[in-house]
Amino acid sequence: MIFDEPKFAPGGDRYIRVEFGDEMNLELNFMAQGLAGALGESGTKGLVETAPCFATLLVHYEPREISYGDMVTELKSLIASLGSSDEIEMNSRLFTFETLYLDPWTKECIDDYREKLNPDKEYDPDFVARLNGLEDRHQLVRVHSGTEYWVASLGFWPGLPFLQPLDPRAMITCPKYNPPRTWTPQGTVAMGGSASAIYPVATPGGYQLFGRTPVPIWDTTKRFDVFQGDIVLFQPGDRIKFQPVTREVYDDAERKIADGSYIYNIIEYQKFSVRNYKEWIGKLDTSERF
Amino acid sequence: MLEIIKPGLETSIQDFPGRVGYWNQGFPPSGPLDSWSFRLANILVGNDAGAPGLEAQFMGPTLKFQQDGVIACTGANMAPKLDGEEIPMWESVAVKAGQTLVMGPALKGARGYFAVAGGIDAPEWLGSASTFHKASVGGLDGNAIKAGQMLPVKAGQGQAGRRVKADCHPQFATDKKWHIEAVAGPNDDWIDAAGHAQFLATDWKLEARSDRTGYRLDGPDWTFTDKATNKPPENGEFPSNIIDHGYPMGGVNLCGQKPIILVNDGPSMGGFIVPYTVPSAAFWKLGQMKPNEFISFNRVSVEEAQALRIELDDLCGENSIE
Questions:
Q1: Domain B177-315 falls in which CATH fold?
Q2: Measured CA angle at A25 (ends A35, A281), to 5 deg
Q3: Chain A interface, best mutation among B230, B262, B263, B269, by max A CB count within 10 A
């Protein structure tokens, strides 16, 4: 449910957790990100940083400058001034990534897992397609690539985005691996629960795998301009589009990344309006599938 | 320049307060676990309290000085010796070019700190020189220091013979039991009364598989309220599962039944509840405990935890020096 009044709880001497509800619902993340934005602009004394997640916002403050009680009062007043979530508008960049779905590298990873940890593991794209009543793995590709994804939060590993589909017709769910994998190829596109993700580097993991992008989302060498001010590509509130490509296009992008001539496809002029978004999904037949 | 003869165990460059401000991109702050000892080392040699220095874990490094300077060793007692002669801890000491400092195994406490006048000159990543080796960020090359490396040192104005007053530096537990403060929340309402009573009554054993990302505790199983057992399915199947949320540093994160205290290199978010949070003023104790020692938690209020932090910050300054 979405709570009538957000709940506040302390995390030790320097954090406050604001909880907007207890379900997976994009609306809750819009509220968390809306509050993070408003708090950042408010110039509130003692604010150190914020971290939105699906249904909550974590606020980090400096207790020498503001008390817990005063920060909660400030947060309540900001939430009141934000009004309905319909009023929230956020700057939102759109990233497009060449993605090779049903690629050989994640297949190799799944095969390795089957060999070493779980011989009964169904090939991930077939498993996710079956669970969600889709015809086959090819429809899974159509459905998964048929929407923009919302960067709800980043974590687990620096720069790893937790993504929610903005188009409800692309909403699919699946369980995580049990036991988890010991490795995952860098750039893997995967999902667990209702969240999709891109693995910034090769790490262990538990999401179901079905594609790969060659485009770095994390870079300590700063070879590309997009990493000049940061090591990590995304911020909460960005949007991502996975563009299905052929092996040739994938290899071409990979070559350009290797020689430094790759150009990131980023659109920066757009604002995300919760009102416009809700009006749009209100018109959709959400039982349709691509 | 400082030449690394032996690196010790995972000795890393850290600064304070570390890489703060990137939690929403999944970046932990890193920085010294015992920032009390770390800051005092810097104050002793005339640096800003947060200047880059070294944190050694369980076994200290051997360093050869390429230039004259002033140094200080604080934190765990690693019996520092300069050219074979024992030197005092919690005191600034003059060193000459060509001399060698040996920091040995930690005799008392777990983490030793080393500061040099001027501070170590390491590049900043996202505003901090702190090493976060899991992601190969910070320090000289993203990792712990290695034998043969040369650490550049900034110009400094140190003065030898400055001492920390005896009652102004941390005292380490001698009975292997640490009393560590904990504030209830943010998810304390998921634990029932018996679970809370048990958390506070238990001597939790620190497991060997603990590091700068998390402190794993061995103890009894937890018991839960209805909130944990009767919840929307997207929270996950186990009582301690919750819709992924941001973790406070110091959070006592309940992974299944296993409490893990999230420390300086820990994760920013995840899908387990955090019934208690260890406040910042108690982190130095975590930094100085060894595996197989015990934690007894003392519940404190937010206001008490904040007063402790302010008290501790005040100790990390010039007024602690004689």
A1: Cyclophilin (2.40.100)
A2: 100
A3: B269
